[in-house]
Amino acid sequence: MKARVHVTLKTGVLDPQGEAVRHSLGALGFEGVGEVRIGKVIELEVAETDRAAAEARVREMCEKLLANTVIENYAVEIA
Amino acid sequence: MKARVHVTLKTGVLDPQGEAVRHSLGALGFEGVGEVRIGKVIELEVAETDRAAAEARVREMCEKLLANTVIENYAVEIA
Questions:
Q1: Would you state the pLDDT for residue B79?
Q2: Looking at residues B3-9, what average pLDDT do you find?
Q3: Mutate which of A42, A59, A68, A72 to disrupt the B interface (most B C-beta within 10 Å)?
Q4: Least CA distance to B60: which residue of chain A?
Q5: Which NCBIfam families does this UniProt record tie to the protein (chains A, B) (predicted)?
Q6: pLDDT tens digit string along A3-56?
Q7: Count of Cβ atoms closer than 10 Å to residue A6 Cβ
Q8: Is the ipTM beyond the 0.85 threshold?
Q9: Around Cβ A60, how many Cβ atoms within 10 Å?
Q10: Do the bridges between strand A2-9 and strand A36-45 make them parallel or antiparallel, or are there none, so unpaired?
């Protein structure tokens, strides 16, 4: 089963990578760009064939590895 | 206007980051994980108020900075 995990920084957490991109866009002449926030999308194949089991497993993966739950939120999509 | 850019590796391009995550998941006891692919989601505010103009501008940003078009695909969403 295919799963997709969206990992984004929690609101209020500074995004240095986003800031760097914003500055670079300005340097390239793209004026008026507001806040830039960068997240991850992780696509993976899991062996489970049952949707609920697959979702629970992927959530466990998020808690243990895929997301830093102190500063990041994650959302799991089972395709 | 808020825009969201999805940047993913083109099919066939090796994803070392994804491979590293797959190995780490295995080491944490998550067996049976197939291919892992990692992409980026970039959320940004643009000054344009017209949708078409905003999309064209963000596409230009992708071509120049946000995506490496040799190995990456990008998709633009205007919220």
A1: 86
A2: 97
A3: A42
A4: A30
A5: phosphoribosylformylglycinamidine synthase subunit PurS, PRK05974.1
A6: 999 999 999 999 999 999 999 999 999 999 999 999 999 999 999 999 999 999
A7: 15
A8: yes
A9: 14
A10: antiparallel
Interchain proximity B42–A21, CB inside 8 Å: yes
The pLDDT of A55-76, averaged and rounded, is: 98
Domain boundaries, chain B: 2-78
Positive or negative, the CA dihedral B51, B54, B60, B62 is: negative
- Per DSSP, the three-state class of B24 is helix
- Residue A54 has a pLDDT of 96
Nearest neighbour of B36 by CB, restricted to A28, A37, A44:
A44
List CB contacts (< 8 A) between A21 and chain B.
42, 44, 65-66
Question: Do the Cβ atoms of B36 and A42 come within 8 Å?
Answer: yes
Locate A25 and state its tokens.
């866009």
Q: Which CATH number fits domain B2-78: 3.40.50.2300, 3.30.1280.10, 3.40.50.720, 2.40.30.260?
A: 3.30.1280.10
